[in-house]
Design a protein that fits this description.
Length: 258
């Protein structure tokens, strides 16, 4: 009887010990923010929309709205995430909100400089919001959802334009222009045949050649093509009296065919 009693208490002690370990391990698990992040981002957006709409988009309202979103989202910076990509996107979004506030503080509202800088941060912000919607299920309610969809549409357009810009810049910057002396040492032709290895059809492509002579003095020459379809090789050609020892091509202007 004594042995049986001891065995019962031993078994009970082991069970309690295992239970305590299980609770301890559970308590030690990180408090990940993955499941909460989109809810927090959504709350910040709704607060901003409400403030801006109530004051009809005045600069004071825009500033107050951005600040409301910053105050709501910033605590996520100190949270842990299982999904590192989500964490990176959240941090990037909060940083863009801070950049938005810098634009409001540092530039005159409605000025050309303000509009340029605001457009840049707006495009960056809406591209991240598109990621939140497409990959992490960000969703709002009612009119807020309609506004979010407008922002995401801009994000899609901005992402497309950024891709096009990066593509043509890469094509041009990697080109090797050859110099040809036209006979008297005072006139030169600069030529490069470049293949459009992308799937984008470009039009009205204007390229600036930075021509640096032996003394490092820069002159500029211009090359232009009307159309540049995918897979097509075109010749960019410019002339100058500069006997260049270094040539740096950059894109000045381009269109994308519909």
């Amino acid at each position: 009887m004594f042995k049986r009693t001891v065995s019962i208490f031993a078994a009970l002690g082991l069970a309690l010990s295992l239970g305590a370990c299980s609770q301890s391990e559970k308590a030690a698990e990180p408090d990940y923010a993955d499941d909460e992040a989109m809810s927090v981002i959504g709350q910040g957006l709704s607060k901003r929309f409400a403030i801006v709409d109530a004051d009809d988009g005045t600069v004071a309202a825009v500033k107050k709205g951005v600040q409301a979103e910053i105050d709501t989202d910033t605590p996520l910076k100190d949270r842990k995430f299982e999904d590192s990509k989500l964490h990176e996107s959240v941090i990037s979004y909060i940083n863009v909100l801070d950049e938005s506030m810098d634009v409001i503080k540092n530039y005159s509202y409605g000025s050309a400089e303000y509009n340029e800088k605001w457009s840049e941060v707006y495009d960056k912000r809406t591209q991240i919001l598109k990621t939140f919607v497409d990959q992490y299920g960000l969703k709002l309610q009612g009119e807020d959802q309609e506004t979010l969809e407008e922002l995401v549409a801009n994000g899609a357009s901005a992402a497309k334009e950024q891709h096009e810009k990066e593509t043509i810049n890469k094509l041009i910057s990697s080109a090797q222009f050859e110099k040809k002396d036209e006979g008297d040492g005072n006139y030169f032709t600069y030529t490069a045949v470049i293949e459009n290895t992308s799937d984008i059809s470009f039009e009205n492509v204007s390229v600036v050649l930075g021509l640096y002579d032996a003394d490092g003095v820069k002159q500029e020459a211009y090359a232009h093509v009307n159309t540049w379809a995918p897979g097509e090789k075109v010749k960019f050609e410019a002339t100058s009296d500069c006997n260049a020892t270094e040539i740096k091509p950059t894109v000045q202007f381009y269109d994308v065919a519909d």
